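Recall from the previous lesson that a structure prediction takes nothing but the amino acid sequence as input. Here we apply that procedure to ABC transporter permease from Nocardiopsis changdeensis. The sequence below is the only information supplied.
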Amino acid sequence: MLRSLVAGILLAFAGSRANIARTILSCAGIVVGVGSLIAVVTAGDFGQRFATAYSEANAGRAATLSVSSWDTEITDVRAFEEDLVRAGGVDVSIYKMVEGVSMRSGEQGIPDVEIRAVDVSLGDIRRMTMSQGRWFTEADAESLAPVLVVNESLAADMEDITRVQIGTDHWMDVRVVGVSSSSALDGGWYTAFLLRAPASEELIYGEPVETSEDGATAPISIRDPEYSVRIDPSDPAATDPWGEVFTERLLSASDRWGEVRQDSLMAYRADYAEEVNQVIGYLSIGLIGIAAITLTTGLLGVLNVGLVTVRERRRELATYRALGATRFTLFVAVVMESVVVSLVAGVIALLGCWALVAAGGAIAASFIELPPDVPIAIPPTAVLVGLGSAAGVGLLAGVIPALRALRSSVVAGLRE
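The prediction returns the following tokens.
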């Protein structure tokens, strides 16, 4: 059987090379169909990665909650943050606007800067894309001066990014360690992230943080706080867009950190990962349907050419039978010829798509700024799907002509 299989494959290659015109004709429909399928998978893969990166940069990674309260005072910030973790928070970061703080660069005052107090963990909650420098690290918390990350708009209008001061009733020198790409989550045109650390606590809380004689930190109070909290996507609270499940968990221990009413505490799903995945899923289904129709048209074209080929080659196939070729060898030869033609078409489609994607990526990069880890490229899945579908179409299109070839009479074929 193996010998017959090898012989059939060799006959298939010989037949393909001997009938170049027919091979090219058979390729046309498959090239269009496979190319469409590769393009659809590539577009879906890029759309998924780009939408995920955009969502993570502008709203947070999957299952990010925004937790805030209004007209209330949290009397013990550390207890409140401990309960945010107990309620299901994997990463927790303060995200509070710092009121009444001015900024200047060199001798230039910068008005209307929105300064947000954050923690290092915000980099785990959101995708912080840096155009210069870096995001905060734990070592920055030990800095003797407040530490900032500013967005691109603010950095571009600074007189000297190395000479920056902020303050209320007096100026304090600060260190700018990075410039972040501007995003939709920036509350203002000028946005600065201030790392919560001992050097900046007075700016954030409005008063010095007191310590007792034994060195323990006294409870810190804060009014109308806002936090970003990332929970496990498998947590039941992640399926609650309005955060009622998480709010109930948090309020169960509210006596530890303040008298907070249920209607003054709000938690809601800030990211839109699920919505993005649904939209891309629907688009992919529609595009795959169109590609499948195109591929079916190509299959019918190969099938039609295969039937014509078998009719024209009856004498040739009968001669093979007369010389000792088995029925299985001829079956494999006819089917494999169809598969070879389809695979050649699949390779041509793949090369064409690669050229189009390379050109499209170069053009897109000149108009929009793509995330550094989201290149426009054909993914391995598209290659496998494209070549696999080409081989499958060739296999299906070759079965019927092969069966017809086996039914042909050897004697009648030799007489032609």
